[in-house]
Amino acid sequence: MYLLPGVLADQLCLTGDFAAQAQQLMDSRTMTSQHPNVTRLLDDMRATLNKRWQDFEMILHGSLDLGMGLTGASDVDLFVLMPINSSKVHSAVVFEAIDLLRQQPDLYSPDVRVTGLEWRPFFTFYHIPTQMYCDVGFGEEWYDSTGQLSHYFYNLDKHFLQLGKLIKMWCSAHELSGHFKADKMANYLWYLLTILYLQQKNLAPPVYKLQKHSENATLDSWDRSFEPIPYAVRNNESLYQLLGGFFQYYSQFDFQNYIVSPFAGRPIHRSDFLNVDRIPDEFVVYKNIVGSDFTNSSTSNLRSPLYIQNPFVHDFNLAHQMTQDGVSKIVAHMKWAAKVYEEFPSDQFLAAILSPIQDEVVDDDERGEAVHKLQDVLYNNCNDSSLL
Predict the structure, then answer these.
(1) What is the reported pLDDT for 368?
(2) Helix 158-173 with 18-29: angle, nearest 10 deg
(3) Residue 2 vs residue 29, higher pLDDT
(4) Residue 3: predicted pLDDT
(5) Strand partners for 308
(6) Among positive and negative, which fits the CA dihedral 174, 17, 340, 240?
(7) Domain residue spans in the chain?
(8) Within 10 A of 243 (CB to CB), how many other CB atoms are there?
(9) Which residues pair with 31 in a beta bridge?
């Protein structure tokens, strides 16, 4: 076996080949909706809302509903369904709910973040007893089109959900995912990077093809519908090859000039959205909404260091909060993991990419030295499971 340096406590020792190690990681880290922390948070939230409303329904979505929940790495995503249909009413309900939370400082942190006020507001709070974040939105059930879309993609092949979990563990180990951070990406953005990668390998269809025969479900002018069409996935790659290929693909991706667009199913040059005549043909709705008016916020998005396009709202950059330093940090980690994939045997790959040595890597010279250092000191596949 191979021991990672600096790991002193709460170790998880991996045994067997890559596939066995991956399964061991997932068995030890998977968190379902029945996890005690999840049920405690939901019970507290239900009791809190009951102080004001009784006629509502709470529905889990996001990573827990997708099957991507991991202990220590997943938040709770929640829809609260009420008999309301106006955005103004939605806003009023959101702030009433926040006021209820703030009346219970023993359960909830007073720092509650509200986003989406211009269309469908939701808020994020921190639940003190479980030390978990929760995103809460109020709206119609079909409104969770993004979650349904993730379900579709990750269930196209038996390896895809496993791939997403391993990427999520890697992000968690190196603090690359998080809420509203300039140097971290939300888990959903990592899901979209994974989907685009699979689309580039012709293992998943572009979103626009899923909308060709769907029944239009327009919200705020954007079509949020899709039809989960049958798609023949001809995947001849193992989970090991898919994971290594993910790091190789994004270690060379030109984030400065290209948009990550799962809707189109391919990277799109940013300049294509600066001229209405160059906008790709798939973006019919975008052309109708924006037209030739490029004075709005959509063009300011194009100057962001990282552009990950919302699959349904095409003028919204989901990664707009990222700084150049944050993007550079993520790319450096991608390059390190790609190099490890190319130089390490498969049964050492997972332990190596989860090593804390990776967090010391800054440039290409250091990356090479760190890989050789890790090869010298790695003597068993034990890892600090508290980092995952």
Answers:
(1) 59
(2) 70
(3) 29
(4) 40
(5) 260
(6) negative
(7) 36-143
(8) 24
(9) none
Distances in whole angstroms, Cα of residue 185 to Cα of each of 46, 122, 139, 253: 29, 18, 25, 17
Q: Which run of H or E residues covers position 124?
A: strand 122-127
pLDDT per residue over 34-92, tens digit each?
999 999 999 999 999 999 998 889 999 889 999 999 987 888 999 888 866 555 567 78
Report the C-alpha gap between 122 and 272 in whole angstroms. 32
- What's at 97, amino acid-wise? A
Angular region, 76: left φ>0, alpha ψ -120 to 50, beta rest: beta
Looking at CATH, the fold of the domain delimited by 36-143 is given as: Beta Polymerase; domain 2 (3.30.460)
User: Are the C-beta atoms of 63 and 187 separated by less than 8 Å?
Assistant: yes
Determine the number of helices (DSSP H) and then strands (DSSP E) in the chain. Answer: 14, 11
Scanning the structure block, which residue is given the tokens 């993520």? Answer: 330
Report d(CA 1, CA 14) in Å as an integer: 8
**Residue 335 CA: distances (Å) to CA of 185, 203, 341:** 17, 23, 10
For the stretch 220-228, contacts whose Cβ atoms lie closer than 8 Å and that sit 24 or more positions apart, written own/partner, are 220/119, 220/120, 220/313, 221/285, 221/289, 222/285, 222/289, 222/312, 222/313, 222/314, 223/285, 223/312, 224/142, 224/143, 224/145, 224/312, 225/145, 226/145, 226/148, 226/149, 226/152, 228/148, 228/152
> Dihedral, CA atoms, 363, 12, 236, 229, nearest 10 degrees?
-100
Amino acid identity at 58: M
Residues 121, 114: Cα–Cα separation, whole Å: 7
Report the predicted TM-score, pTM, of the whole model to 2 decimal places. 0.86
- The token pair at 242 is 């898919």
Lowest-confidence range among 70-74, 219-223, 356-360? Answer: 356-360
Which of 219-233, 324-338, 341-355 shows the lowest mean pLDDT across its residues?
219-233
Indicate the angle between helix axes 187-200 and 145-154, nearest 10 degrees: 50
Contact call for residues 194 and 313 (beta carbons, < 8 A): no
Spatial contact of 157 and 241, defined as CB atoms under 8 Å apart: no
Could you report the per-residue pLDDT of 227-265, keeping only the tens digit for each? 999 999 999 999 999 999 999 999 999 999 999 999 999
Q: What are phi and psi of 191, to 5 degrees?
A: -60, -45
